[in-house]
Write a structure and sequence with these properties.
There is one protein chain. A 5-stranded parallel beta sheet has the order 5-4-1-6-7, sandwiched between helices. Strands 2-3 form a two-stranded antiparallel sheet. It has 209 residues and is of the alpha/beta class. The longest helix is centred in the N-terminal third of the chain and has 11 residues.
């Protein structure tokens, strides 16, 4: 089956984001970074910001439970930009090529409404999507079905016409349950091969890092 619409996830597909990049500067060794991110500023704690909770509220609450770590917790907001790595090699180029070829290109991203503008400043290509659904703006998060349904309403396209690309298997499964075609992202090279097989990209071009 051939798709006519491409829908990207952003973090882990187009942009490298990892809190460890910041906390390696603030904690003495890798073990302490790992412990802090597993026990204090956890992935589950971060998810509330993707769902629309203000950073000020989430940080104040957590710092109240761990006052001895308050400075480190507050850095999660004040130095958030230091968690951004670079582009995932090759995928921004694929996005550009799809746009040039006239393929509708959209995104569904779990991202805080407060920090997304910071990412956009550093990565202007994030402004190139035809439809962009940011979880923090909508207060809906993947892998919940509602955010995918919202996207389909805005796109005016049936799910089977859409190829959804994400690095998270749970998000892929949720999209597939609605009828999306899916691609579990691992490398830009593998993604290029899938898009070429679907007739959305020329096989003669090479992915550029």
């Amino acid at each position: 089956m051939s798709a006519r619409v491409v829908v990207f996830d952003i973090g882990g597909v187009l942009i490298d984001w990892d809190p460890a990049y910041l906390y390696r500067k603030l904690l003495p060794d890798e073990a302490s970074v790992s412990q802090f991110l597993k026990e204090i500023c956890t992935g589950a704690w971060n998810e509330q910001f993707d769902a629309g909770v203000p950073f000020a509220d989430g940080i104040a609450d957590l710092a109240g439970h761990h006052p001895e770590r308050a400075n480190l917790i507050e850095a999660y907001w004040h130095r958030w930009h230091e968690m951004l790595g670079g582009e995932i090699p090759g995928t921004a180029k694929i996005l550009e090529r799809l746009k040039t070829a006239g393929v509708p290109v959209h995104a569904i991203s779990n991202w805080s409404a407060e920090t997304f503008p910071r990412a956009l400043e550093r990565f202007p290509f994030l402004d190139s999507f035809d439809i962009l659904v940011v979880s923090g703006r909508e207060k809906l998060v993947k892998p919940g079905i509602a955010i995918f349904k919202l996207f389909l309403e805005r796109a005016g396209a049936p799910a089977e016409d859409c190829l959804f690309i994400d690095d998270n298997p749970a998000n892929i499964a949720a999209a597939a349950s609605l009828g999306f075609q899916t691609e579990l992202f691992r490398t830009a090279e593998a993604l290029e091969q899938r898009l070429a097989a679907m007739g959305l990209l020329s096989q003669s071009e090479e992915v550029e890092a």
